[in-house]
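Hi there, hope your week has been kind to you so far. It would help a lot if you went through both lines with me. No rush at all, and the record is pasted right below:

***
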Amino acid sequence: MGAWQITKKDLWLLVQDRRTLFLLVALPLVFVAILGTSTGRLFATLDSAKLIKLDVFDDDHGEIAANFISQLQAVKDVLVVVVENHDEGRKRLEDGRCNLLVSVGPRFQQRVDELKLFDVFDLQNGKLAAGPESLDISIESGASLGTMAGVFRQLVFDSALSTVARPVLRRDKLAARHMETQKARRMEQEAERQAQPPAEKSPGLPTSQDLASAVAPAAGSPRPSYVYQQLVPSYTVMFAFFLVNIMAHSFISERNLGTLRRLRMAPILPVELLAGKTIPFLVISLVQSGLLFLFGRLLFGMSWGDQPWLLLPVMFCNSLAATALGLLLSTLVRTESQVSAYANFLVISTAGISGCFLPRDMLPELMQKISLATPHAWALIAYQQILTRAHPDLATIGQCCIWLAGYAAAYFALGCWRFQKLD
């Protein structure tokens, strides 16, 4: 009996356990769908799903205040809801139905009328130095924003500033004259452009219109969501390492049945025996990873990047590291209870350290360095290069694959050494 016969036997046994195979694919999809729903991104084609919910209460009811609200509504990925009174907005903020409450006070128009051109251009020394409160605008944030509250406060202030700048400029005679001159000049240029015949395009020199149409997604096509560019690879990596649990249970079962002892007595090298036991799980891991990325594309509209073929070596090296770690763990545990305790602790702790639960760029700098001690982190770095960069760095991806292969070789070598020590 050789490694190939052992591989075929174990692969056949795994295929017969259809419930386990179903869970290996369905469980990560359920996790991705739940987290995607919690961020408002269940389907990438739902453009109305917004990440930030902003409530506005208008106590001024003036034209400029209405323009300010329109300016906020034009901000991408922000859902603006106009509430009838401040108490309703506060209640929605407290129960989590909105993330930010912006109140336009009754003296908003008066504050705008008092502004001079100097105040608009010198924010540090003018009347707008105090920020939104200078315009009688109050901003309250919910606990969900955390440290990001300051960023959205600045976004609201910038929208207010761009709204009030125009009426202030109109009141300034010199600035108003300059604006009228610029407007007349633009109208003349537009009339001249329309009067000229369309210019012939030079071959090989695309116009800006051509570039815009090439970059813009086709009508009706799903727009890739950045959320799933993070979730799908993160849970693909994490659930690849869930196989260590199944591998360890398989080894314990064969040890209890005496099958493993008989295999060790057969005329086959320990390395061949362990390779035959490991390859079936490697195949299952590769199929699992491929299906998760396929479903991520079909169900969630995620993008595979500009060079999808780069995903293949990362998938293979990550699955190789995961199955080799499963082999090592299988030679360390003795009982079913040890498998459940050690395997679950190992999988969950390494996933948390490496950045599978949170994007790596959100981890503290020290934690990012510590996470490099796990193979998960190297797989995530490679996936991030492929899925979120316009031009992936091949050197970085190659380095990640080398590290993953190195982890796999080290785990497999230690597993072979431990296997020879078994009773």
